[in-house]
Amino acid sequence: MSIAPGHLALQDVSFTIGGRSLVRNVSLTVAPGEMIGVIGPNGAGKSSLLRTIYRTNRPSAGRVTVNGEDVWQRPATWVARHVGAVLQDMPADFPLTVRDVVAMGRSAHKRLLEADSAHDHALIEAAIELLQLRPLETRAFRTLSGGERQRTLVARALVQQPAVLVLDEPTNHLDIHHQLQLLRFVRSLGITVVAALHDLNLAAMFCDRIAILHKGEMVATGTPEAVLTEANLASIFRIEATLARNPRTNTIWVMPA
């Protein structure tokens, strides 16, 4: 059976390291073009789970498939062509410019030392424009602010032309203007997105569905309205909150007491 590009499935995924279970029996299917927000308290296992998708944390049990292919049975170059990732803590102490970092996104599509083609250049230029990096393109990556680095890494991921985009706290270091701008942009791409988010209202505003992780387990999945309930907020996030509708977006709005 043919599976559409961008289909992602986690089947009973667990991850244990040093005898400590960080993720336990998580199953999640993401349809092509769907944006899923993964939320949960600190230490819930969000980053550990996302790392199983882009081949950093090998699952102790279970499978992760993209387009029906097990990412841990395919070469790393195959995964790099199909899965893009923007991580929380990317090393920055290297002598590369912003343009160099963005261009790195094409490496999975090229042979070693192969020169950039006209197609590569076009993709790099488009990503630099879309992420408003033109004034920064000759700057050393290590000299950028946290928000500027984040936009550069998103541009690099886009240049990969992935079917699945994994974002681990993509709004870290960004002011509210750039948070909204980035998530609107990601949402407009029409590709499959899995994003770990701390801001519940941003998750509700931009995600088709939300998955809650708690102590390494998936405890709720569904639409923002179904998942962001007073009971879940109290039991999982340990807050009392009033729920309303955002008058501008008509999305669920969490107002902590």
Query: Helix and strand string, N-terminal first?
Result: EEEHEEHEHHHEHEHEEHHEE
How would a textbook summarize the main sheet? 6 strands, mixed
Structural class: alpha/beta
Radius of gyration: 18 Å
The geometry reads as globular
Tally of domains: 1
Residue stretches low in confidence (pLDDT < 50, at least 5 long) are none
- What strand line-up does the widest sheet have? 6-7-8-3-9-10
CATH superfamily: P-loop containing nucleotide triphosphate hydrolases
Helix content: 25-40%
CATH structural class: Alpha Beta
What's the rounded overall pLDDT mean?
Answer: 91
Percent strand: 25-35%
By CATH, the topology is Rossmann fold
Number of strands: 12
Protein name: ABC transporter ATP-binding protein
Family: Belongs to the ABC transporter superfamily.
Keywords: ATP-binding, Nucleotide-binding, Transport
Organism: Paradevosia tibetensis
Give a verbal description of the structure.
This protein is of the alpha/beta class and 257 residues long. The protein has a single domain, classed as Rossmann fold (3-Layer(aba) Sandwich), CATH 3.40.50. It has nine helices and twelve strands. The strands form three sheets. The protein has a six-stranded mixed β-sheet, sandwiched between helices. Strands 2-1-4-5 form a four-stranded antiparallel β-sheet, with helices on one face. The protein has a two-stranded antiparallel sheet with strand order 11-12. Helix 4 runs antiparallel to helix 5 (146-159). The longest helix has 14 residues, at 146-159. It is globular and about 55 Å long. The chain starts with 7 loop residues before the first strand and ends with a strand.
